[in-house]
Amino acid sequence: MPEKRTLLLLAGVLLASALAPLGSTSIAVAMPQIAAFMEMDPGTATQLLVGGYLLISVIGQAPAGKLGDIIGYQKALYIGLGVFMLGSLLAYLVRSIEVLLISRMMMAAASAMIVPNASAMLRAQLPESMLPFAYGIFGATMGAAAAVGPLLGGALTQFFDWPMIFLVNVPWALLALGLIVMTSKPQKEKRKGRLDLRSAVLFAFAIGALQLGFIGDTVDLRLVVSGVLLLSLFIWVQLRVDEPVFDPRFFTRPAYAAAGCTTAFGNFTMYALLFQLPIFFVDIRQVAEIEIAGALTAMTLCMMLGGPMSAAAGRLIGIRYTAVLAACTNLFGLYLYSDLESALVPMDIILPMALMGFAGGMAGPVVQAAGMLAIEKEKAGMAAGGLSTMRYLGGALGISILSLRLGSESTTTLEQHLSIIPYYAAALFMVLISAFLLPVSNKNVSSTKGSQ
Prior knowledge:
77% of the residues lie in helices and 0% in strands. The protein folds into 2 domains: 388 residues, MFS general substrate transporter like domains (Growth Hormone, Chain: A), CATH 1.20.1250.20; 41 residues. The chain is an all-alpha fold.
């Protein structure tokens, strides 16, 4: 049984890491109200406040992980939590479009600092024998927080007003900060290295160009091609510098590559779904926001159930086949969801959402643990930053594709909502294929790492 300090540290890290997905999805149900406040159509408002949040999160993950390797994961977490609280307070206290956009950028930058360093802190401060369990809970927490975000946001919007979505972050972050301060071990060793700001800026331009290429009614191929070229240049530079912001060689390790791909494509579907459903039921079925949030409870609960089941399945059939089973379950859930035309009320989509939530909860823990254990402990920040980048990149792309398919009109149509389903299917097939790259067990991860 882990000692009390270890459990409290794990609780603090989990609370901190949950803020990032909560920040991105808790405004999902409130988006119609926020769009009306901003005098914008829902698609554009979603891209600015959600796609923009995810974009900054994507850009910041790798540099933040590298910075944690340099200054220490504790300091990086303290900075992230402090900035997140400040951004949340601004969004609550000042009711203006400009401040809302600035606060969302602050929260996004803070979440980029929090997630990779929370993951790296687990790698650095917990016994290795406890890591599979810890990453299992970490993955389940991240997934469940993303899924519970619309439920929490819907309840706060219904009973108070949408700015309350931001105020609730403050006591949450304070509790996480207190637990980490009291229970984390002081960092004794002196860190070495530096953050290559030129590489970080190059990465920002690459991801920014890719994201901007998907904003609007059509894909801007000039920006997309520019983004791909800049990203290729970034990879080329990272392979040649002494202090990379992120080491692309990590992806030569099958377990890490599989973790990155399954995380990215899984989040593509999950994030787009979480934001599609409120728009669908408000525009097409004229359903109240609180009813939509209530229907997502099934997804949340099943995602939380999938986490513990992941550990049991991993021991019974191995990491690879646990991820394969989860991917097949996800595809079956999507098959049921594809009959969206028959969904008259949110309760009609509970079963497919429950299946997809369970699948996400079951896959996340084994994938995260395998990916992190494939990389040396002293590079945990970079490794976590890379996986977090893939997570948010997948989510940002999902939001962008969703916005493109829904168009820029003030209301959406059933045909537009049905047109996004093939994209979900393609992403989930990629998850299934990537799962076969995972090792059979974590022992195989260690042996593969040691041979490289």
